[in-house]
Design goal:
The chain has 253 residues and is of the alpha/beta class. The chain contains 8 helices and 10 strands. Helices cover 31% and strands 16% of the residues.
């Protein structure tokens, strides 16, 4: 476990010492939320509905696979979704930037590139969500927009807010940054339209990510079953928000 995780996901002296800073952080975050909610700071509204899929934790919670599934559902309903994203990991010098399946991961960022390839939906990345939406609607006939993250981007008005919670890690020690892993207090979840648990119980609105096949990258992208590796020693590398979930899944298989 990384040193930061050890502090954020347990009660410990380091976290307690940082509580005053965490209190100040929560105060500023709440004040900013109120300013935008009451219209005291300028907000922009898209001409088509916007669904924000985000979280209150630092790090990954499973938003990307959920966005892929939501795109599939919307497409089956006859809608034309588009996706906007901050584009973390992108090394482009120009934003907003439209991502296609032919972009490199260094230019696009790995998650936006995955979204473009898996959904076949138009994807635009950049730090300015208003500019991202404008480019998306100028270039494509989208009638609904999914925002990858952006719950804390209050300048962007949204029609639906979906918060994703990783039940394997939950809310850590329950403290805001820098004492804990929360970007906003847990009470923020009372204001969203839907909370979806990644790996939740049967009585929760939840989803689970269970890989059933592997793709061989040597040759012709051959699909192989996980069961073929049962009882063997394997080497695994993960680059996701919560790598331990991936390793635990492999061990279970």
């Amino acid at each position: 476990m990384k040193r930061l995780d050890r502090y954020w996901y347990s009660q410990n002296p380091v976290a307690w010492m940082l509580l005053p800073l965490a209190g100040l952080y929560c105060l500023l975050a709440g004040f900013r939320f109120v300013l935008y909610k009451n219209g005291w700071l300028r907000r922009f509204k898209s001409s088509v509905p916007v669904i924000v899929i985000g979280n209150i934790n630092v790090g990954g919670t499973g938003k990307t696979p959920l966005i892929i599934k939501l795109c599939e559902i919307l497409q089956k309903l006859g809608m034309k979704p588009g996706i906007i994203s901050r584009g973390h990991g992108s090394q482009s010098n120009v934003y907003p930037l439209e991502i296609t399946a032919n972009n490199s991961s260094s230019e696009a960022g790995d998650e936006p590139l995955l979204l473009a390839r898996r959904t076949q939906c138009p994807v635009v990345i950049g730090p300015n969500r208003e500019a991202d939406i404008r480019m998306l609607l100028q270039r494509h006939d989208c009638n609904i927009i999914l925002s990858d993250d952006g719950m804390q981007h209050y300048r962007m008005q949204r029609d639906v807010e979906i918060a994703v919670v990783d039940m394997a890690r939950s809310f850590g020690n329950g403290f805001c940054l820098p004492a804990g892993p929360l970007r906003e207090p847990v009470r923020r979840l009372r204001t969203v339209d839907m909370v979806i648990a990644n790996g939740g119980a049967e009585n929760q609105l939840s989803f689970a990510i269970r890989p059933v096949q592997l793709i061989s990258l040597a040759g012709q992208n051959r699909m192989v079953s996980l069961s073929q590796f049962a009882g063997q020693k394997v080497h695994a590398v993960a680059g996701i928000g919560h790598p331990q979930r991936f390793f635990d899944t492999l061990s279970e298989q």
